[in-house]
Specification:
By secondary structure, the chain is α/β, with parallel strands linked by helices. The protein is built from 15 helices and 34 strands. The strands form 8 sheets. Strands 15, 16, 17, 18, 19, 20, 21 and 22 form an 8-stranded mixed beta sheet that branches.
């Protein structure tokens, strides 16, 4: 996906695209195959093609990449206070000039979180529109723009053909970023307090790309194309999919072109943890955000007829007023044509309704309760060996136990002829271990470029209360009847908008800062996390836990612009021809002078990959810009484990003015490793600012 042509030869990109298709499909009606042309911020199109036609198009002059319109996944208020960002924090007078573009499932505009009371007109830089319909009649001075995209995807009857959110995900993420202050918000009494976003005075531009069938790449690119042209300051994308190449992924392509226009893209790393190398959205020109816990945890106790009480996790808003009979699912198999062999897990069509009706059912696996509800169960207890570090909502009273507690409950069932139980309403308890990276958060290392550390940082993504669509339900299941204005959700989808909000906060104080300035500020001021809890170390949490207050005043920043990334891509093996197509600049080329290495990319972290018991030395070159005190002297302080050796040259940087740049090198000597990952950090300190960067060495 390349840059738009810089000359006037092609006034309408769609004509060019139709002409290209004409050569591929050899049909006079080639325009029928053209589904969409990207016209605003980059050059590309969506078309219906056969495999043979794809191959022909790939080999045509001027084509950067051709990839399928793949479906992506959505990665699903105490959190801001927990990271030291209270309601009373210092605010910029220009916060209301900041526009955050949210590429997601739309928005519920009637939510109190999106009231425009007290807001003036949108900033003059705003060039976007509000795409209205019968069920989305207008935007306001808070939600200043809204568009939707479903190129070639047929909508389900219960979906809104408008920017209105029928899922809840987009409403939730938008309110985490920029929701206004709403007192007394809760999920049916749980997590009660004041709901607010990171930048309550900022404006929201909505780009709906996600539907019940998923989020397709063609729509994501169209949203980026518009958002860049509309004048947003930050783009937040809580969805994704993996690609082994930088320019065969719509989020990577969109984020690259956004970076060129001075817009930082914040992304979620994915919910595929906690194995190594599961991370998505690992593009060096975007911010990759992992999910951490806060100190709020929801637990749900189960009281048995023998007065024993066992604790599980869930978000249970129901209250039982009596003890109910309890049965193990294996003892209630549907033997009349159902899936009885899966009864113990409570799989669909596996339960005997006559044996389940009016009882609590014990299941040997996590499930959403569809079968239990259909069978007439009044509650559900689940047990397995998976981590229990976040809580889920279910459509009936439920508690999710570890195997030990679940086994003791099972033993009780076998000890009496009339076992009974009560599933109690969830309560909030303090998690003393927080913050740590939740089990579902995807881990590094980076599989595309091994020596760029990903994720970049972490932010709260567990048990987050935020606004919700009233076209959805608490559990997002159709058989759930609870409709609420605020809901509690977990996911890297919730972590990403915390970072987006923090980026917008920094941007409000420094409107001229580049995307890399803002990204560097967020990374180098992040709070260190505990390696003894997160044994994956920086592969789990990156630079550490987000700290928006410190990020607004970081002292030094690492900058990288389009030229730096082009040089990096040269080092990655991209040809002159492909670079010129990506940038739209015929002067873009690789040479001995511009063929940069990954170790020369001005990234705010350091990663060294090596093979088992093979020593390696890497020389990193970095440049920092002074944004702190005009006259200041920074000294390098390195902390690394025994064996690894790090030398910083020079070890002292003296500045005389703001904006002054200083270059240094970091030589990392890694011994023959037999440990998967070891890490330390470099801190530049002038006595006021602490500019911290992780140093990681690992086996691949």
């Amino acid at each position: 996906m390349g840059e738009l042509p810089k000359d006037d030869m092609i006034s309408a990109p769609s004509l060019l695209h139709t002409s290209m298709l004409q050569e591929v499909i050899h049909s006079s009606s080639s325009s029928e195959y053209l589904l969409h042309s990207y016209k605003n911020s980059f050059n590309g199109f969506v078309a219906k093609l056969t495999g043979e036609e794809v191959e022909k198009l790939s080999n045509m002059e001027g084509v950067v990449s051709v990839f399928p319109n793949e479906k992506m996944q959505l990665y699903t208020t105490k959190s801001w206070d927990f990271i030291g960002f209270p309601q009373e924090v210092e605010r910029s007078t220009t916060e209301s000039d900041i526009i955050v573009g949210v590429i997601d499932s739309g928005i519920w505009p009637e939510s109190a979180s999106f009231s425009d009371k007290g807001f003036g007109q949108p900033p003059q830089k705003w060039k976007g529109t509000c795409q209205t319909s019968s069920n989305f009649t207008s935007c306001n001075n808070k939600i200043i723009g809204a568009r939707y995209y479903h190129n070639g995807v047929k909508l389900d009857p219960n979906e809104f053909g408008s920017p209105r959110d029928s899922d809840g995900h987009g409403t939730h993420t938008a309110s985490i970023i920029a929701g206004g202050l709403v007192s007394g918000a809760s999920l049916l009494g749980l997590a009660s307090g004041t709901a607010r976003g990171g930048v309550p005075a900022a404006r929201i531009a909505v780009y709906k790309v996600c539907w019940s069938k998923g989020c397709y790449g063609a729509d994501v690119l169209a949203a980026f194309d518009d958002a860049i042209a509309h004048g947003v300051d930050i783009i937040s994308v809580s969805l994704g999919g993996y690609s082994p190449y930088y320019f065969e992924n719509p989020i990577s392509i969109g984020a690259f072109h956004a970076m060129k226009k001075g817009i930082l893209t914040s992304t979620a790393v994915g919910n595929y943890g906690h194995d190594r190398a599961t991370i998505t959205n690992l593009w060096p020109w975007s911010l990759s955000v992992a999910a951490s816990t806060t100190d709020r945890k929801f637990v749900t106790k189960v009281k048995l007829g023998n007065n024993q009480v066992y604790e599980g996790v869930s978000i249970n808003t129901f209250k039982m007023n009596a003890m109910y009979p309890i049965i193990h699912a294996r003892d209630a198999q549907n033997t009349t044509g159902g899936a009885s062999q899966y009864a113990s897990s409570c799989d669909e069509n596996s339960l005997n309704k006559s044996l389940i009706n009016g009882k609590i059912v014990l299941c040997d696996a996590l499930n959403w309760g569809k079968e239990a509800t259909a069978a007439g169960a009044v509650g559900m207890i689940m047990r397995d060996g998976a981590p229990k570090d976040f809580s889920l909502s279910f459509s009936l009273p439920a508690s999710y136990m570890d195997w030990s507690n679940g086994t003791e409950i099972d033993q009780y069932l076998n000890s009496t002829s009339k076992p009974t139980a009560e599933i109690q309403r969830s309560v909030e308890v303090k998690d003393e271990l927080a913050p740590f990276i939740v089990s579902f958060s995807s881990r590094g290392p980076n599989l595309i470029t091994r020596d760029i550390l990903k994720p970049d940082l972490s932010a709260p993504g567990v048990n987050i209360l935020a606004a919700w669509s009233e076209a959805s339900t608490v559990s997002e299941k159709k058989w759930d009847t609870r409709v609420v204005p605020y809901n509690i959700m977990s996911g890297t989808s919730m972590a990403c908008p915390h970072a987006s909000g923090a980026a917008a906060y920094v941007k409000s104080f420094h409107p001229t800062w580049s995307p890399s300035y803002i990204k560097s500020a967020l990374m180098t001021t992040a709070s260190p996390m505990k390696g003894e809890i997160n044994t994956d170390l920086e592969f789990a949490y990156g630079s550490g836990q987000l700290d928006p207050v410190k990020a607004a005043n970081p002292g030094l920043v690492y900058d990288a612009n389009e030229t730096d990334y082009i040089n990096f891509l040269c080092g990655e093996g991209y040809s002159n021809k492909k670079l010129q197509l990506i940038t739209g600049d015929t002067n873009s080329s690789c040479s001995a002078d511009t063929n940069g290495t990954v170790w020369a990319l001005n990234y705010p972290s350091f990663a060294v990959s090596t093979k088992y018991k093979v020593s390696v030395t890497r020389n990193f070159t970095r440049t920092v810009t002074n944004v702190g005190t005009p006259a200041s002297t920074y000294k390098a302080n390195v902390t690394v484990p025994a064996g690894i050796s790090v030398e910083v040259k020079p070890s002292v940087l003296s500045f005389k003015s703001l904006g002054q740049k200083k270059t240094f090198s970091v030589i990392v000597m890694v011994p023959a490793l037999d440990t998967e990952i070891i890490s330390g950090f470099l801190v530049w300190s002038d006595g006021v600012y602490q500019v911290r960067s992780p140093i990681v060495a690992y086996l691949y």
